């Protein structure tokens, strides 16, 4: 029992260091672009040694993966907290709305940071590959969450299709928003676009709901 708290503390420290590096990378990418930024500069900005940087990340583009994954992690956690039996479409939309909401300045800054990274990814194949990988990993982790919500009688194929459609809906919403100058709230916000995409892409693929 004595080793569990130490392991938890170690993991927290590791996650905090990774986030520090990710924030440093995002700031430099926003001002200089990926081409104008080196791993050494990211490590220096984060206050870590270069060897520490490469202990956690394979490349400078990979360094922003914790930030890109943050929204998906929060969305998945909100879904995991939903009561079994909640209509899946309702649970997906509610969780997306909460995960993409901007109730304070920190949330606004987080979304604007994502916009900057997605814009940088448009001209950087390596950064774009990180974004796609983050989404693929999110989709895989979403499957058991949706399976629990859908219930034991749900067809596993339908669950996988729903996870893929829901993940793509959020990805497309964020990419569409990032290409504009729309605000973080309102009819062209990430929340509004995510709701629209979820309704379009999950039509007919939501387990446990009648197809029309």
Automatic annotation (TrEMBL):
This is TetR/AcrR family transcriptional regulator. Coiled coil: none annotated. InterPro entries: DNA-bd_HTH_TetR-type_CS, Homeodomain-like_sf, HTH-type_TetR-like_transc_reg, HTH_TetR. Keywords: DNA-binding, Transcription, Transcription regulation. The keyword DNA-binding applies. SUPFAM superfamilies: Homeodomain-like. Residues 15-75 form the HTH tetR-type domain. The keyword Calcium does not apply. The lineage of its organism: Bacteria, Bacillati, Actinomycetota, Actinomycetes, Kitasatosporales. Residues 38-57 bind DNA.
